[in-house]
Each structure stands twice: as C-alpha cells, then as structure tokens.
Amino acid sequence: MIETDILIVGSGIVGLALARELTLKFSDLKITILEKESEIAFHASGRNSGVLHAGFYYDANTLKAKFTVKGNKALTDYCLENGLPINQCGKVVVASQENEIEGIYELKRRGDANGVLLEIIDEKELNEIEHNAKTCAKALFSPTTSTVNPKLICKHIASNFPRNVQILFNRKFIKANNKQAITTNEKIKFKYLYNVAGLYADKIAHSFGIGRQYTVLPFKGIYLAYNDDNLIKRHIYPVPDLKNPFLGVHFTRTVNNKVKIGPTAIPAFWRENYTLKERFNLNEFLEILGCQTRLFLSNSFNFRTLALSEIKKYNRNFFINEARKLVKHLDVNNFGKYLQPGIRAQLLNKHTNQLVMDFVVEHAENSTHILNSVSPAFTTAFSFAEFVVRESEQNFN
C-alpha cells in the first residue's frame, strides 16, 4: 500500500503541469503520478506538432480562448528562462479561394476578442513575410505562434520536481474505491485524484460516475517530412472549417528549422491505433467501429464527408496535393518519410452526436476529471493547470 495526498493519472503535459502547479502552491503535499507507459509524454504530449498556438481560433467564451494566450506566454517564458529550444517563427493563415476570405476576418475578430496580436495583410505584404505562401487577396499573420520540442519540455518539468513528487511508471490504473486506487502493481491510498489520462480519461471518469454522456473518438494525425529546410520561413496554415476542431493539412517549421506537412485527422479504429496492428484492442475496435458506423450513417457533424476526405490522405499524392494549395513552389520529389504519428483523443457527446469543441473539466467528491484535453492543450498547460487547481483545491485540504 502506498499513501499519497494527490494522485495524478497520466504523465502528459497537463498531468505534469498540474503536479508543478500543486508544488508551487502547496509545498508539503505528497504527489504521486501514475503512468501506464515506461516514460512520460509517450502519447499525445510527445507526438504533437510542437506548435505553441497564439489563441485566435477559439470563441471568446471558451476555456481554450481563456487560457491559450496566457499559456503561450507562460511556455515561451519557460523555454527562454530554462534554455530550452524554441523557434519563434510566426505563422500565416492563407485563403485558397475567395469564399475563404471571410474566414480570415472571422479569425481576426476572434483573435481581437482573445487579446491576440494579429495582422490582416495583403498578397504583397504576405510575400515579404513568407515568400512562398500564396493566398487569395488577404492573409492573417500571427507573430506569436512558435514551435518547441514538446517531449523535451515535459522531461524538463519532470526533472525539476521536488522530492515529494514521484512518478510510477508501468502502472495502469484499474479502478478506485473509497479513496483507494488499484493499479497493475499496487494499491494507492489518496486524498484527491486528478484524471488526466488522455485517450482513456473518459473510461476513468465513467468509473467515478462522471461524464457518462461522453466517449473518446480517436483521430490519427500523420506527418510527412520535407527535405528542403529553405522551403518556408514560417508556418503556413489554411483557413479552417470552424465547425469542427481540426485545422487542416498545413506546413510546420519545426523547432530545429525542419519542414513537415500534416497532420491528418483520419478516424482511428482503436485508441492507440498508431500503425496497422500496434496495440490492437478488439473491444475498443468493436466499440469505436460501431460508433463510427452510426455517425457515418447519420452524417452527424458531417462525419461521412470528413471521414472519406481524411482517409484519402493515406494516399501520399493526395496528401501532398492538399499541402500544395498553400504554397507557390513545391518539389514533390523533396518529400521524405512519414514521421511519428499521433492520436487525438477527441471527445464525442453521445447524446447529441456532436464533437466537443472545448476542454471539459468535471468534478466529483474527491476527484477532478479533465476530458477533451486536445489541441491547444499543450500550449495552455501552465495556465490551464492553474485554473484546475484553483477550482479543486478546496476539496482536498
């Protein structure tokens, strides 16, 4: 039996940020982090694009909008203060056709409401900022969008924990009863639990009787490397469909000035479906396939169109042609290998058959459950953790 004050399930960026925030506010708390893998940030936190978002995609009344600007600054400062690599290259959002220009103005309106530094520019100004980007009449320039090494940040946070924080690896959470968690290795008595288990956060929440209207619907993100570092100077993104949470295939300039395209948002068939057979789970496969079939037949949130379009991106030429719409010059022969894929733990409301657009935080008597911690969760990690602790701290004293 292990005894701890705070038990955190999951050592992704949000779990680590929560532990960090708790140590800053309560230096005497004993904190235990459970991680089912053999290392931290094994899943989404270590497999994302590394982009620190500026905060202009989100409606002003959302948690994403509330914490992205502050989170961007906090993580930027953290990297600069600790000598961690950061590429403050900025980003442009371009319109491929005339009917997307209004989307540029809508993003500017959202950014203004959220306090984001943005500028609408014309084609001449775009050429000066990013010579290879192409747009229809107008584009949006975001100077505060950056890239970092997400896994390095997570490791740095963990390596600076005080001695009252321990991370237990290769420990899978099974269930909890009366403030006692059972793992694959031991029992852990706790006073308060934070569930930040990403792809399995919904399952753990359900075991506490929380969030049963939600289920995770996984989407696979694939990236493709480009072998000419001089192709672009900044990130180039398309105008997104703001009715869904995906931003479309785009060009990313990485923290070490490499170039890649992606990600896709291909429906995955089990929660850790990184490759064709990797971590296959029959029960998950049947559950998710059933859910996807219902969504496909009903075409809720335009799922049928989205799924058919995204599956085409398994075709390398189709994938490249999507990116090609954003730039003036591109040598298809310069594309290299596929990079490490990621899985987005996208939350679905089973009652409405709609994707959940914002973060979800649910509280029980002695636990807090963070659901739908998808992009820009990495960017918001420090500011979001501050909020979550403030909301829950009165319950574990």
Set down the secondary structure blueprint.
Layout: E1 2-3, E2 6-9, H1 13-25, E3 31-34, H2 44-47, E4 51-52, H3 63-81, E5 86-87, E6 91-94, H4 101-114, E7 119-122, H5 123-129, E8 138-142, E9 146-148, H6 150-159, E10 165-168, E11 173-177, E12 180-183, E13 187-189, E14 192-195, H7 201-207, E15 214-221, E16 224-226, E17 235-238, E18 250-253, E19 259-262, E20 266-267, H8 282-298, H9 303-311, H10 316-324, E21 335-338, E22 342-349, E23 354-355, E24 360-364, E25 367-371, H11 377-392
Parallel strand pairs: 1-13, 2-3, 2-14, 3-10, 6-17, 14-25
Antiparallel strand pairs: 4-9, 5-9, 6-8, 7-8, 11-12, 12-13, 15-20, 15-22, 16-19, 16-21, 18-19, 22-23, 24-25
Provide keyphrases for this structure:
25 strands, 6-stranded mixed sheet, alpha+beta, globular, 31% helix, 397 residues
